[in-house]
């Protein structure tokens, strides 16, 4: 995998990056890395929650409703 990725940021984002870099005394790379780490954690949580929601959406019946009328004799 290549160590370099090119992307474009809005001017406002660059201004904020420069300002926070000075305020926090951190490099641009550190700020972007921390922001992306946070983003990935949040998105992974959303995906996990969606997976549970999708799994639970397979049925909206409770246990008794699901088995009601089933004759196992």
Q: What are the SSEs and their pairings?
A:
Elements: H1 11-24, H2 28-56, H3 63-67
- The average pLDDT is 85
Number of helices: 3
Estimate the helix proportion, in percent.
55-70%
- Quaternary structure of the protein: single chain
Distance from first to last alpha carbon: 60 Å
Structural class: mainly alpha
Task: Identify the overall geometry.
Answer: rod-shaped
Largest sheet: none
Describe the structure.
The chain is mainly alpha-helical. It has a domain at 11-59. The chain has helices at 11-24, 28-56, 63-67. The longest helix has 29 residues, at 28-56. The protein is rod-shaped and about 75 Å long. The model has no long low-confidence stretch (mean pLDDT 85).
Question: Outline of this structure?
Answer:
By secondary structure, this protein is mainly α. It has helices at residues 11-24, 28-56, 63-67.
Which tags fit this structure?
3 helices, 73 residues, mainly alpha, rod-shaped
